[in-house]
Design goal:
Chain A: It is an enzyme of class 2 (transferase). The structure holds 2 protein chains of 2 kinds. Chain A has 9 helices and 6 strands, in the order ααβαβααββαααββα. By secondary structure, chain A is of the alpha/beta class. Chain A has a 6-stranded parallel sheet. In chain B, helix 1 runs parallel beside helix 9. Classes of the chains: A alpha/beta, B alpha/beta. Chains A and B meet through helix 1, helix 6, helix 8 and strand 6 of A and helix 1, helix 7, strand 6 and helix 9 of B.
């Protein structure tokens, strides 16, 4: 009995100390970042961009428990256009972003370069062809794009004998891809204190490289480049 | 090296284990044991030796988990994609599996006494006959043990698992055991290889890779992902304690999220389908064990 009390006291103490250290550490990081911001805003960006050995084809951003500002998300889209990432998606398990989609869309349209083209994937057939300039595909994902899609596909297959005979990993992948519209994300930025995927569409996450973004607010192009550099260093072996 | 290890922790380790046990401890931890080959290269030994070291680490790690009160552990031992490796390496890995499963029977008494249940998750059809037989026997032998559960993902990928689940459900609708309306997320989960396990609370991947590589994709929807640079054979108890500590710090968030999830509803028809599905699995194992 004595010893359990002792352990409990230690438990509370250790967690308390950690919390204090964490707060101080975050404050220091914040100060350092602000300092860097003032002094080296656009330094070396061009050079760093040039050294990226690869960039993701589909960047997916998992918005965590905290809300994020549309302005930061807009910045991400603009930067993705700049580094020629063709697909970006935002996953918000709370569904809030989906509700604000119109506002988000008009904000992006007002910020982008006039020759850039943004393809919003909401309902099928939103494609517009025949334009010149840079292009990016944008999609807002919710929980419904994940497991629910797999449930619906299973229901369809159950009443369609022809398709049911052809069930294989490849065919399921093809059918789910039709619904998901985007290639599997190869890079995932997870916002918030912990790496949780929060019910993200499971099938698509097979080979996604994950990076945790402590705080999406005030993310700079330079720190975005940090993540792209980390991504470009990842090497995939796929089993072999 | 054996499956059950009882090497004692030192005083400081024991103290830390006891302190952490005062808070919430994960029920289920999943590991992607990556880095055996890099370890072999680093220490100038054969690849097979690296894999063997990896297995020893697993046994050690299971012991730490038991000490911490982590009831269930799932490890990614061999992916279906790994069949693409060189013949020599695949054969060496199969030989290791063969030896370890044989060893398991030698340690039968200890295993039963500790109440360890071993389940192999994956597509057993792809394995050599003798290994499949050994696995089936091991699973049947330990299936009623409940104190500590070890799931070994062997010849496994998550996409294959989900595809198999979809296939079983489609077949069940076609032969009228269930109706289309019964298909739900819960039903798909019930037909996965892992249907007997709760979802993992944390997933640990070693050796610096930051992806999930087709492991438990369906099951980790609310799991904390932990990536660490250490190679699997060099993983030690402090790494594990660190992850448990971090898990304790993020617990409050998880609870908020879980509360949003809808409660599953199951009707009689689905229940009896799930039960008969489970029975069929056991029968299949018995068939493999007799082969």
């Amino acid at each position: 009995m004595e010893s359990t009390h002792f352990y409990r006291v230690l438990y509370v103490l250790v967690h308390a100390i950690y919390t204090i250290v964490e707060v101080i550490w975050n404050a220091t990081l914040w100060i350092v970042r602000e300092f860097e911001l003032i002094h080296s805003r656009y330094k070396n960006v061009r050079k760093r961009l040039f050294t990226l050995s690869k960039t993701p084809k589909h960047l997916t951003v998992i918005v965590g428990h905290d809300d994020c500002s549309l302005r930061d998300l807009t910045n991400l889209i603009i930067w993705c256009i700049a580094v020629e990432i063709p697909y970006i998606s935002f996953y918000d398990f709370k569904g809030k972003l989906k509700k604000e989609e119109e506002r988000f869309r008009s904000m992006v349209e007002s910020q982008k370069h006039s020759t850039d083209h943004i393809v919003w994937h909401r309902t099928a057939g939103t494609y517009k062809n025949g334009f010149v300039g840079r292009k990016i595909h944008v999609k807002i994902l919710t929980e419904e794009d994940g497991r629910e899609n797999i449930v619906n596909l299973t229901k369809e297959l159950a009443v369609d004998r022809d398709r049911a005979n052809g069930i294989s990993i490849e065919s399921i992948n093809g059918w789910l891809l039709e619904r998901f519209e985007f290639p599997d994300p190869d890079m995932g930025l997870v916002c918030g204190g912990r790496l949780h995927i929060l019910n993200y569409p499971p099938w698509q996450l097979r080979l996604t490289e994950f990076f945790r973004l402590n705080d999406l607010s005030n993310i700079t192009f330079s720190s975005f480049l940090d993540y792209l550099e980390m991504f470009s260093k990842c090497e995939q072996r796929v089993g072999t | 090296m054996s499956w059950i290890r009882n090497n004692d922790l030192n005083l400081l380790q024991k103290l830390c284990v006891n302190v952490l046990k005062c808070g919430p401890v994960p029920r289920h931890v999943a590991f992607i044991m990556d880095g055996n080959r890099r370890y072999a290269r680093k220490t100038n030994v054969q690849k097979a030796e690296g894999h063997s070291k990896g297995f020893d680490k697993l046994a050690e790690c299971l012991h730490w988990c038991r000490e911490l009160g982590i009831k269930e552990v799932t490890v990614y031992a061999f992916s279906i994609e790994n069949f693409k490796r060189s013949n020599d390496e695949v054969e060496a890995l199969m030989q290791l599996a063969r030896e370890k499963f044989q060893k398991l029977f030698e340690e039968k008494d200890k295993l039963m006494q500790e109440g360890v249940c071993i389940r192999v998750i994956g597509n057993l059809c792809l394995l050599p006959d003798d290994i499949r037989k050994l696995i089936a026997e091991a699973m049947l032998l330990t299936k009623d043990n409940t104190r500590s559960i070890l799931n070994v993902a062997f010849s496994y990928t998550s996409r294959e698992e989900i595809t198999q689940s979809i296939r079983s459900i489609v077949e069940a609708v076609q032969d009228k055991s269930i109706e289309v309306g019964d298909v739900s997320e819960e039903l798909i989960a019930n037909c996965l290889y892992t249907h007997l396990s709760p979802d993992p609370d944390i997933l640990i991947r070693t050796s610096g890779e930051v992806r999930i590589s087709d492991f438990l994709l369906w099951q980790i929807s609310n799991t904390e992902l932990c990536f660490t640079n250490v190679l699997w054979p060099e993983f030690n108890i402090w790494h594990l304690l660190g992850f448990v500590f971090k898990y304790q710090r993020s617990r409050c968030l998880q609870d908020v999220y879980k509360a949003n999830k809808p409660q599953p509803n199951r009707n009689h028809r689905t229940q009896s389908f799930v039960k008969s599905f489970e029975r069929k699995r056991i029968q299949q194992l018995e068939l493999y064990a007799r082969a």
